[in-house]
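[Meeting: bench + compute handoff]

Bench side (C.D.) handed over the final construct sequence. Compute side (W.E.) agreed to return the predicted structure before the next meeting so the bench team could plan truncations. Sequence as handed over:
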Amino acid sequence: MNITARKSLAAVGIGAMSLLGVAACSDDSGTDTTDTTTMETTQETMQETNTAATGTAAPAAGPVGPGCADYVAANPSGPSSVEELANQPVAEAAGNVPILTTLTQAVSGQLNPDVNLVETLNGGEFTVFAPVDDAFAALPPETVQTLQTDSALLTDILTYHVVPGELAPADVVGTQTTVQGGTVEVSGEGDMLMVNDANVICGGIETENATVYLIDGVLQPQ
């Protein structure tokens, strides 16, 4: 996969370097009841916020970003192509994007069996800021190990990358409130967009129920 200035695809991991201190100090002794409650609350929140945002999105003008041409050239047809992704629910589409394997593992219970957001993500309309595999490559092993057992922290990080409602590139710039409850700041214009400190590689990719922005960094919940 030839996305602009990326390193080789990396091992499983999710989180942010700035979260290492928090992750290392996290208490791994949470009960199954707490994890279950966290997941149920997250799913309810995503469904409620999505309902409020449904119907507010403007039609997309097409993907933007310095890596779009490379992605289209590398995936001209088949389930990974921009055209085919538009017919797939977002969690399925993520699994078909070659540079989103790590994120796919994180949202589908493969990283932490107590965190599976597939049904929830496929059940509403969202804008998803999706860190590519290279964004996870430099994460320390300690972060990965913590997220494999800390369901609340993993859920917090994942939902910070999701905004209710579909936002096209023309509408996404500004302060956006995430499902996690914090906000992200989208800045820039044209092919040069940023989400907090992460660059948009290719954004405005349509799936059946979401608009996806491939980004080169993992966002830190606020």
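W.E. noted at the follow-up: The two ends are 32 Å apart (CA to CA). C.D. will use this when planning the next construct.
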